[in-house]
Amino acid sequence: MSAQAATKSFGAAQVLKGVDLEVHRGEVVAIIGPSGSGKTTLIRTLNAMETVDGGEVLYRGEPVGYRKTAGGTYVPARDTVVAEQRQHIGMVFQQFNLFPHKTVLENVTFAVVELGKLNRATARERGLELLGKVGLAEHAAKYPHQLSGGQQQRVAIARALAMSPEVVLFDEPTSALDPELVDEVLAVMAELAAEGLTMVIVTHEMRFAEQVADWVVFMEDGRIGEQGPAERIFSEPANVRTRTFLDRVK
Ligand code: ADP
Fold it and tell me: ABC transporter domain: which residues (predicted)?
């Protein structure tokens, strides 16, 4: 998927000022940069949590969050088009966003059953398999509040995987966690990356980005200040502001 000259304003404030980004299949893209630079807004445009107001975000050649009218123009789509696109573009949020009144297993299987992707028995089997993958099989019958933040986030990851998405977006997945719970979530993400899942990750975890990302995007003030292979960005950033940022946070 890609963004081309993507812009987004909230009222008078332009938060994305023309962003070009390519996400290649099987790659891990880390989006880094100072607070307020537009990282979260950018990742949210990739599955139509926000729609761009200029340029475009494309998935399989189709604009994300829009549908084509009979007249051939694109209008914002909040309905079936977006629901269909989100089946392929999963998302994991900073605050987990689990359903509090559903069990862990139900959180994972709810959407696939509701959308008729899998029957209940198969969804259950698949859900348990995914919970096993994130190390939580024995917690399937519990409710989110009975789990630690790190465990809840791992449930959210299993939920995102349930739909067998092509891409999974992670918006600061460890920012809300106590420091001792961060590593268990990063370990699951590193494993998914090693398996070849396409991932886009907004993160402040620089060591993780350096080790796991293929491509790093440095955002500053609504623009991409610099992007390139992780190895290069972390060893010899071309942009002095990338260097300053990395010196500050590493
Ligand atoms: P980052 O993720 O890099 O911290 P954000 O994308 O969250 O940056 O925010 C970029 C800017 O857009 C900030 O100034 C923020 O206050 C503003 N912003 C983000 N979302 C909204 C919104 N829904 N309404 C108004 N302003 C917003």
Answer: 1-246
Average pLDDT over residues 19-34: 97
Does 172 have pLDDT greater than 90?
yes
CA 30 to chain centre: 10
Task: Say what the alpha-carbon torsion angle 239, 243, 248, 250 is, to the nearest 10 degrees.
Answer: 130
pTM beyond 0.80, yes or no: yes
Q: Is the CB of 203 under 6 A from ligand 1?
A: no
**Exposure pattern of 162-177 as b/e (b: 16+ CB <10 Å)?**
bbebbbbbbbbbbeeb
Ligand 1 centre distance from Cα of residue 52 (Å):
14
Cα distance between residue 34 and residue 40, in whole Å? 11
**Ligand 1 contact, 132 CB (< 6 A):** no
Give the pLDDT of residue 97: 95
Residue nearest to atom 11 of ligand 1 (CA): 36
Q: What are phi and psi of 151, to 5 degrees?
A: -70, -40
- By most ligand atoms within 8 Å of CB, the mutation choice from 7, 8, 14, 15 for ligand 1 is 15
Ligand 1 center–CA 110 separation, angstroms: 30
Which residues, at least 6 apart from 142, have a Cβ–Cβ distance to it below 8 Å? Answer: 103, 104
109: which strand partners?
Answer: none
78 — pLDDT class (breaks 50, 70, 90) = low
Residue 79 has pLDDT above 80, yes or no: no
By the 8 A CB rule, do 58 and 50 touch? no
List pLDDT tens digits, range 93-134.
999 999 999 999 999 999 999 988 899 999 999 999 999 999
**CA-to-CA distance for 219 and 115, rounded, in angstroms?**
36
